[in-house]
Amino acid sequence: MRSTVLRTALTSLALVLAGGCSSPTGPERPLDGKTLFLQHCARCHGTDGRGVPEVPGVRDLTDARVMEQLRNDQLKMVIRMGKPPRMPAFGNEFTDAALEVLVAYVRSLSAQPDAERELAPATP
Ligand code: HEC
Measuring from atom 12 of ligand 1, which residue has the nearest CA? Predict the structure, then answer.
């Protein structure tokens, strides 16, 4: 029992160490837009994309009216170039593939707001 817990803990630690600082791509570590978002964006945009109060003027990424103005290539551009002075530029932090899944995840935040998903799960 104890050793199982310990082994699980060590495995998780090894995974964190293996993945932590290296490139987010790799066959054993599939790209996950949500993970990327939580790692890089949530400290300002919040875990749900609505933005944290500590960052004034941060964009609410769940607001469909704002997000539908931005094409996917514009989203990628914003992430790469930032929006000075407050939205940081991520430059080459993300590979093209990583940007792709990250943008898809950011899109999903406004496509299906949590409240609506809970209230009307059947709506297409
Ligand atoms: C240091 C805080 C911070 C971090 C980290 C951050 N953002 Fe932002 N982001 C902002 C702020 C502030 C704005 C509003 C900028 C403005 O309109 O001038 C913004 C705006 C945006 C916009 C809207 C751009 C537009 O043209 O309206 C998008 C999309 C966005 N961020 C995505 C992301 C993504 C994706 C990440 C993670 C890769 C991220 N942000 C990380 C602070 C941050």
Answer: 58
Could you tell me the residue ranges of all domains in the chain?
32-112
Among the listed residues 34, 35, 38, the one whose alpha carbon sits nearest the alpha carbon of residue 46: 38
Which residue lies with its CA nearest to atom 13 of ligand 1? 58
Locate 24 and state its tokens. Answer: 């987010």
Instruction: Give the whole-angstrom CA distance, residue 95 versus residue 106.
Output: 16
User: What is the Å distance from ligand 1's center to 88 Cα?
Assistant: 7
Q: Splitting the chain (124 residues) into consecutive groups of 10 residues, what average pLDDT does each group show?
A: 65 55 55 95 97 95 93 96 95 95 95 57 54
The CATH number of the domain covering residues in 32-112: 1.10.760.10
